[in-house]
């Protein structure tokens, strides 16, 4: 009995000693400010910094009375704009980005602030297995003064939704309705609300069956729209443009229609020529919204396709426009265009530009729209360019910093195919990514946060604290054009060693460009920089300087000219538990 009592006392003493030791270790860890609750295989990210420095802007500094024509740099294509009183709202395409359809607000057409996303719930956006350039195309935002309601109509190429509309009384509240599926085919729908209370939808579609004359032959259709049921009125559809301005010249891809009313006349503006080098904007008019429509003799009213290819600081592909009238009666047009690099590659994607519009005559004319597009345009009457851009969406050359320590992410961070909140944790001044068992090259939601590349010359860096647990674990930074075209710099583990690797994925085939065995994992910095087509990837272990890995690599696979599709390159913070490339010893 005495022996059992001694054993029991000994066990209690060991338990007390172990508890005391654990407590001391926790105190020492707290004193060293080590992350509490850090999980092996889950990277902690902090202190993201992006700096852009393009000649397009450095050679054209802001002067009083002017502002930059690129109001949204990076992949913000297919812009649409509307106004209620002194409030302007602008949206852009988002494809499989989640949340979708970024929405911006301005009081002056010059200084813009992102106020959220129109499609911010899974019930609105169902793109979980879609390719990068599928999903949501060409949103149109329109305010209806007849019922004081905002509408966003678009095409969602996923889950069988197709053409759809959502609406809200207050865009700032981020409470848009769930999608209402619309009963017509085609793409690029837009609403028009006449001052007599009637409503219409115009959109791109294929010609009637058996009447397609050539590849790219499309038509513009119009329907009457029932505001009470939010549906087109069946039996009212009519083709109002066949092919484009002049069918005999076989124009291609007439699309992105918008109707405006001025002085009792109706104007139909469309994109023509496709969203590449032949892009343009054309205009028609009619005495009735249902047509017939007559094209202007001076079409196109906006294009860069006819200009010398070797012009300096080239802006190209201009088209897909929308018009808005200011409270003072001036007109402006927003549209997409690209700024290619020295090899004519398009890595920043299709950006949103603005130009003043002269509508003093019969037809609207983009001021300078047929000349080489300039960096600066004149501000509306009485508006000054804000010197304090901290509360507005920046443009020109700028630095964006994010410590990644807030409970709510900056709206510029997006995920692909699913909510960010399913794989991130924001606490203790750092952002944790909980990796999915999904590789970056899959058409599934991936555990990665993305920030759009907004300059041809940029540097982006981030701090990462990460210890992979196995060869299936991998985390780092990516330059991403699509699931088939991307670069990834990151850390993995093989046996008891850690490796830094740079990979290039081209057309779905991944190759390791370089790898370096590192002494330990843990805290490090990762950086990617670009000068035009030249990209470099570097890392710095704690207490050490940056070390390049892989030399200088081409940004070719980050260009839409090579990768295809409609998006621009993005910089991502990425982790996975489904890494599949063996380490070569």
TrEMBL record:
It comes from Sphingobacterium kitahiroshimense. SUPFAM superfamilies: Arabinanase/levansucrase/invertase, Concanavalin A-like lectins/glucanases. Residues 1-28 form the signal peptide. GO terms for molecular function: hydrolase activity. It holds the Pfam family Glyco_hydro_43. It comes from the Bacteria. Keywords: Glycosidase, Hydrolase, Signal. Belongs to the glycosyl hydrolase 43 family. This is Glycoside hydrolase family 43 protein. Coiled coil: none annotated.
